Amino acid sequence: MKHKGYNNATSPNGNSTAQKFKYNGTELEESFGLNQYEMELRNYDPALGRWNAIDPITHHSMSTYNAFDNNPIFWADPSGADAVGGDGLTTEQWMEASRPGGGGFDAMRSYKKQNYMGELAANAAERAKKKKSTISPDGDPTFETDDNCPPGEKCDKDGNIIDRSTSDDTLAMINLIGGLTVGNVNHVNGLFIKNGLLYTKSGVYKLYKINGTLNGNQYLSGSKFMKNTNAIAKGAKFLSFLNVFSLTTNYGEAYYTGDTRHIVRGTISYLAGFAPGAGAVLSYKVDGINIEYFHLSHYLPSLYRDDIFNKPSDLADRVLEYALKKKD
Amino acid sequence: MLLAKIYLFNHLKSYRTTCKYYKRKDNAKFYAWYLTFGKVFVFVFYPFFKTTELIGISEFIHNNLKLVSIILVISLYAIDYFLVSKKIEKIKEEYEEKPINELKRLQFYSNLFLILLIIINIVFIYL
After folding, report:
1. Which residues of A touch B (CB under 8 A)?
2. CB distance A276–B21 less than 8 Å?
3. Quick check: B49 and A243 CB within 8 A?
4. CA distance A248 to chain B (A)
5. Fewer beta carbons within 10 Å, N or C terminal of chain B?
């Protein structure tokens, strides 16, 4: 049985639907007379040169409907999220990706990845050449695993990223257990005192009220464990001072790697340690958060394209060179 | 000697603030050290790591950062515990008896020390 009159589109290549993928590699929506480019997050109106929805990443220097940072030749924005430059792309790759049907943003991303991996391999080879001892008798340079590791991260021998939350787990757990014990012992002591019992080193006392104040002199026999609560609290407090440890390690890491995110995390973790009872728990939680989330651009989007975080592009120069070469 | 006096003075200031927020004296004592250590460390960490680099033990410290900081923190806590925290009430009483002029002088010296630390930091940054 064959139905006719609908579902006419058959092959995605070469038909009218495939031809609609145009500017930035995105589809031009012509139905209802819209004539807008359908990006992933919002639509772009080529007649106005503006987006028809607000920008998910706000740049305080310009309007949130502003497209391609007012420079559609230099910047591409295939997702509708943020303008993408040609950093890390060769001129040919840039031209190839941005032509109609060239793959757009996805193609650029894959080119960038290719180039980045190529650069890493080249750097590793260079370093291996400098260190004679790392070259094997066959002449093949043995790559150091550190070279395949992204900045600010630690890798194992196979090049896999070690998550910081697991690498520091033992100490953080000791800290957490210490903090929890301090909080609980203090809380339980408080409850006992409220109910008329006082546990000290020397023994257990029953308290009674005179004129609204608690007094204690009547000795009760208590278990050995309860007699030692103060000792437990002291020991636990000794463990919970590892809160300070996160301050020193994070600041040290910031000094050696030059990554300011460690300072932000260390300071927050240290300040969280001041919360009575729950301080160690909060500090442990902060230590477990991925370092990426302490990047200031998450909270101050105007820093998103700061030169400190992203290297400036030399694409304009390269395009010019390419054009001049073609002329010759 | 003056350095010890400045440390004691600042520790007492921290103790006064922590006493406001932590009603149990044990906790207040601990957090007083915690606060003092944090304040000192923020001003001292850059020159500290820089001097290790100048001496040439920077690589060892970077590789054993956890171990080094554990030793540093525990030793500093032990020194503080035996010399200050254990007899802090006594020290507090002694300071209460001191004349205002002497306390003012201590305040001046501690401010001077702070400025000196900031200058050292700046010098080390542009070294």
Report:
1. 168, 171, 186, 233-234, 237, 241-245, 247-249, 251-253, 255-256, 270, 273-274, 276
2. yes
3. no
4. 6
5. N
Can you give the residue ranges of every domain in chain B?
Answer: 2-125
ipTM value > 0.85: yes
Nearest CA in chain A to B61: A252
| Residue A229 forms part of a structural domain | yes
For B67, list phi and psi in degrees, rounded to 5: -60, -45
Residue type, A68: F
Task: Give the range of the structural domain holding residue A285, as residue numbers without chain letter.
Answer: 166-289
The pLDDT tens digits for A148-207 are 666 556 666 666 666 555 555 666 677 777 777 777 776 776 667 666 666 665 566 666
Q: Structure pTM?
A: 0.52
- The pair of three-digit structure tokens given for residue A281, joined into one six-digit string: 């728990």
Helices (H), chain A: 91-98, 104-130, 164-167, 169-194, 224-227, 229-240, 242-257, 261-272, 279-288, 315-327
Q: Are A25 and A107 in contact (CB under 8 A)?
A: yes
pLDDT band at B57 (very low <50, low <70, confident <90, very high): confident
